[in-house]
Write a structure and sequence with these properties.
about 20% strand; 16 strands; Rossmann fold; 3 domains; alpha/beta; about 475 residues; about 35% helix
Length: about 475
């Protein structure tokens, strides 16, 4: 046999061996789930559950393929806030295809039903448990649980590259990084990693199109200052008190000089007025929940509360006692009953002995987490020089990430406004207001969702879906 034939045969055998190794690796990392406990019959969509090893971490994900046009619909990497809140929060309560039936829950395994306005109708979505220690993600070394904004972003970026290598059929599909609440800090860092590596010629080239962020956290001080402004405009603070606070504090309400007694006194009165307000949605009832730690932290001066960006200190459940079905938060309790069920963990192929108990939001991770990026504004500013497409949306009744804070840093980008404060519509009714910014090939669409609190996808599924479906397919919102 000629030498070149030997070479071709060896090359062919080597290629087949690599393919077999990839198949075996996929079998370990990703498992196709046909049925889920609580849902009647076979799932009408493709669901994959699995792990990807990154550094010292094993990051858990669930992937849902688009039920529309999966070969052309975009791929979203979806990150939830906290930090430390599971991707299940996005899957069940925000944009995923299933939801819990809480209308007549009496205990046991919760029932599931199809969400009519799931984003997976027109996009494939990876719901990721990040940072490590969130949900079913775990660290091979306890030291690996100590993460930060930058290290979490780095690990998540590595996860995406490895996941795409394991799923090459999605490599040529448009990619968006999507985030909710606190992940508005982390997502831009991931986008920057992709831009830098694409520019450096790292292969494979990722077909990144843009960034999507709901209730995007940008900075605690910025949002604390805007909280009082929005609360005043919503009628929660009287004009005389507001003017006194504004004059004595000079518009800076987060960090106050202890010698400024007038400001300190005004802020104390404002705190009393807002104490019984549900900060995530001022129109909703403030609920009593089971929480493993106090409901709030205090700043060093003790004057201003540090708001949890995901609102988790008012939203965590350690058990199912005292369900309050009139309260929106009560539905979160069902996720604990479902995710910690042994038949559920078996169906999802959760690795035994890795996570003792699943938490929707892991308080331990929050305690270990290092907030080393105070603001992602510099990343957002840098994006204006690219061809990225960006969608930001906020609720106009949210005091956790007030819409005025978002609008303030958007103005600071100093780019051309194509459309300024025009209504957008769903079913012929005003759904909110929009501003569109344009800078050469860069385009940013900002929308408010009328009547919504924190994380609009949880409050208005249809509005959020209409917004997303139009924007993602380049139709006017």
């Amino acid at each position: 046999m000629a030498p070149y034939l030997h070479l071709n045969l060896a090359t062919w055998l080597f290629t087949q061996l690599l393919l077999l190794l990839l198949l075996f690796r996929n079998a370990d990392c990703g498992h196709i789930v046909k049925t889920l406990p609580g849902f009647p019959g076979e799932l009408p969509f493709k669901l994959e559950s699995g792990y990807i090893g990154v550094e010292q971490s094993e990051l858990y994900y669930i992937f849902v393929e688009s039920t529309g046009h999966p070969r052309t619909d975009p791929l979203l990497l979806y990150l939830v806030g906290g930090p430390g809140c599971s991707g299940f929060n996005g899957f069940f309560y925000q944009t995923g295809p299933l939801a819990f039936n809480d209308s007549h829950y009496n205990g046991g395994l919760p029932e599931l039903y199809l969400r009519p306005y799931a984003w997976t109708k027109t996009a494939s979505i990876i719901f990721l448990d990040a940072p490590v220690g969130t949900g079913f993600s775990y660290a091979n070394d306890p030291e690996g649980l100590v993460v930060s904004d930058t290290s979490s972003a780095r690990q998540t970026y590595k996860f995406l590259r490895k996941w795409l290598a394991e799923h090459p059929q999605y490599m040529d599909i448009r990619i968006f990084i999507a985030s909710d609440s606190y992940s508005g800090i982390v997502a831009p860092i991931i986008v920057q990693y992709i831009l830098d590596d694409n520019a450096a010629g790292v292969k494979p080239h990722l077909k990144l199109i843009g960034l999507i962020s709901g209730s995007p956290h940008q900075g605690i001080e910025l949002e604390a200052n805007a909280e009082i402004e929005v609360a005043y405009r919503l009628g929660l603070i009287g004009n005389r008190l507001y003017q006194r606070a504004r004059e004595s504090c000079k518009g800076q309400y987060f960090s106050v000089d202890s010698s400024n007694k007038g400001c300190e006194e005004a802020l104390g009165q404002i705190d009393e007025l807002l104490n019984d307000i549900y900060l995530e949605n001022v129109l909703g009832p403030k609920c009593v929940t089971n929480s493993p730690k106090p409901d709030e932290d205090e700043t060093q001066s003790g004057r201003r509360r540090i708001r949890s960006l995901q609102g988790e200190k008012a939203r965590r459940f350690s058990g199912l006692s005292f369900p309050q079905w009139w309260c929106k938060n009560s539905a979160y309790a069902l996720s604990y009953a479902w995710a910690n069920n042994e038949t559920v963990k078996e169906a999802l192929r959760i690795r035994e002995g890795t996570v003792e108990k699943w938490y929707r939001c892991n308080l331990v991770i929050e305690e270990l987490y290092n907030h080393d990026i105070a603001s992602a504004f510099s990343y957002q500013k840098n994006f204006t020089k690219t061809d990225l497409q960006v969608l930001l949306y906020t609720g106009d009744h949210d005091l956790v990430v007030p819409h005025l804070a978002t609008e303030q840093w958007l103005r600071a980008l100093n780019i051309t406004t194509e459309y300024s404060w025009r209504p957008w519509f769903v079913d012929g009714q005003v759904a909110g207001y929009k501003i569109i910014y344009q800078s050469y090939s860069y385009r940013l669409t900002y929308l408010t969702v009328k009547g919504s609190g924190h994380s609009p996808t949880e409050y208005y599924n249809k509005k959020s879906y209409e917004m997303f479906a139009r924007w993602i397919h380049f139709y006017p919102v």
